[in-house]
Amino acid sequence: MPKRFNYVNIDIIKPFAIFMYNVTKWINRMAYRKNKYLVRSKIWIADDTGKVAFGLGRLRILEAVDRLGSMNSAAAELSMSYRAVWCRIRESEDLIGRKLVVRQGKGSALTSFARDLMKQFTELNIKFQDEADKMFGNLI
User: pTM above the 0.85 mark?
Assistant: First the structure.
């Protein structure tokens, strides 16, 4: 009778073990959060006609431009065209009346105003979410 070798292919088991670990973590989180809800909404800054001057999308664009130093690289990372990124930045600049991005060599850089705007918008968004969660946390 031939010998049988009992072995497990680690290349198959390891991804499955990682998957099961993540599923277990997710189930535990869901069990802990049972009947606990969070309020989620979006905020943005608009002019009096309703045109968006700044929001989460523009924030992500400016973060990518700041991190990568180029509108072209930011567009590629965000799966957008260069023109779409450029138009959104320019529209925000026109509505706000201040420059957000300036050319710097072969790339782009944020102005100090853009950095302040990003910081204040992020703080506003965090405070808004925290207050909404506090307000409705005990209700549902």
Answer: no
